[in-house]
Amino acid sequence: MSLSLLQQLHEWLAQHPTPTQVLVAYSGGRDSHVLLHLLSAYQHQYQPSWHLAAVHVNHQLAAEADAWQQHCHTICAQLQIPFTYRQVQASPPPGESPEAYARTLRYQALSQLMAADTLLMTAHYQQDQAETLLLQLLRGSGPQGLSGIKPYQAYGQGALGRPLLEVSEAQLVEYAQQQQLHWVEDPSNQSLAYDRNYLRHQVLPQLQARWPSAAASLSRSAQLLAQSQAWIEQQAQQDLQLAQVTPTKLDLTLCQSLAPERQQWLFRAWLQQLGQPLPSQAQLHNGLAMLLTARPDAMPCWSHGQGQIRRYRQQVYWVQPADLVADWQADWTLLQPLNLAALGMQLLAEPCEGEGLAQARITGKVQVSFRQGGETLQPVGRTGHHRLKHLFQEAAIPPWLRGRTPLIWVEGCLVSVVGHWLAEGWQAGPGQPGWRLRLVPLETH
């Protein structure tokens, strides 16, 4: 049996990029001990140049926590595997799931050890996958949740792998007995207060009594659902590429042309790209109904995550809130970038020739402000002064962006609306030196 497991590990590793460093998440329990022992044997037989190490996360929840940490240290010393540990305080705040909170802290601690060539391995096996699928089914999850535990994924600067996902519990038990492994038992694993333990000790045994291959079948279903989810995500990315005008703007007409299911996956892909949390099915359904079916002249707004999704004319925008002060203003020399922290942007004036704001006209004090209302401007090539409100409407600039557009004043005269208009008489003529004004993200300079 040990040769069989070693061969399965060998085949799994052959399907993924070869790492320089392998880090094993070692709890001291049976499953992670089997994985550590297997990898040690694999290193000696196939990969002597590997840097194999183990890390233990001490959650400090049980009285035996320090003894378990010492046990892990002892086993690693016997196997001549470098050992390290991290301690976290995993007592959950009120209302937080103890399992979920401990898992989050554990993975946060482990991510700090990851380098670009590091593969972190955990000992999740076939029954873990079956339990995860059942839990997600009971939560009403869609294909993404039902895909279960991923065998390999990007993690931190490196990758996270679960090479035992297709290994049965019987195989783990037999290997542990043959190799005379010794491990610790966490009493909390027997507590039926935890959903996963309830499934493991109460539900799965009854399923397997009737259907002996239940764990394997459920695990296989998770794999098939993962394949379906991969296809859905690929289609959603293709739809997003077609609909995306800019990173924060979608073409409403294209979105409306898609079937409702594709609309939902498109918006999930977009929010994920923006780094925002995924909405629930109900939130997504209600939000899209508001955005996509409102009357043409409406401007619906859906608050979500750290911002808002707004619609204006035939565009859908992601809007980050900005703490702009209506009467904010700053003096500017044009020779240095001006930070507009509320926008996350910098205002630059770049020397140019034959375009932009005429350098020769800049003889007085330059100020930058945001719109307060009532401003007028005579754009280059047009007659008479026009209210900015009307100019913005003509240019189809969404209302929430109008107050985020810098205005340039020289001695109290509005001479430029950055990115849109210059005032007549203030433009550089052919061959004349000018200033090209533009906004750039703060992080790029």
Proportion of β residues?
A: 15-25%
Structural class: alpha+beta
Q: Which CATH top level class of the largest domain fits? A: Alpha Beta
Q: What is the tally of helical segments?
A: 14
- Assign the CATH superfamily of the largest domain: HUPs
Q: Please state the overall shape, judged from the principal axes of the Cα atoms.
A: elongated
Rounded to the nearest angstrom, the distance between the terminal CA atoms is 59 Å
CATH topology (level 3) name of the largest domain: Rossmann fold
Number of strand segments = 22
Q: Taking strands numbered 1, 2, ... along the chain, how are they ordered across the largest sheet?
A: 3-2-1-4-6-5
Supply the number of structural domains.
3
CATH architecture group name of the largest domain: 3-Layer(aba) Sandwich
> What's the rounded overall pLDDT mean?
90
Major β-sheet profile: 6 strands, mixed
Poorly predicted regions: none
The value of Rg in angstroms is 30 Å
Name the helicity range.
25-40%
